[in-house]
Amino acid sequence: MVLRFGGRSGLVTGAAGGGVGFATAHRLRSEGARVAVIDRHEERTSEAVERLAGEFGQSRVAGFVTDLADRDALGHWLPEVERFLGPIDLLVNN
């Protein structure tokens, strides 16, 4: 099986709702990417990470809770995401 995104990192915003964002995070992870899920809903973010980690393994999935409408939040979460993922290769603003 060829993993198209093996060794890459993906950041998906709005990925905790179970719709397109979650499906995108799921696909990236299934293709070998390290994935960070960002959403403003703490409980849904935790659930999304649990679902992804349960299927693909915890070490390559993380969740971050923030409201991206808050400009000040941008400076806070990006360094945290990069500590987990390394440089971001793929960004999906969902």
Structure description:
- It is a single chain.
- The chain is α/β, with parallel strands linked by helices.
- The chain is built from 3 helices and 4 strands; from the N terminus they run βαβαβαβ.
- The chain has a 4-stranded parallel β-sheet, with helices on both faces.
- Helix 1 links the parallel strand 1 and strand 2 (34-39).
- The longest helix has 15 residues, at 42-56.
- The mean pLDDT is 89.
SSE order, as H and E?
Answer: EHEHEHE
Main sheet overview: 4 strands, parallel
What's the Cα radius of gyration?
12 Å
Strand content: 15-25%
Give the strand order of the largest sheet, numbering strands 1, 2, ... along the chain: 3-2-1-4
Structural class, by secondary structure, is alpha/beta
Low-confidence stretches: none
State the distance separating the first and last CA atoms: 28 Å
Shape, please? globular
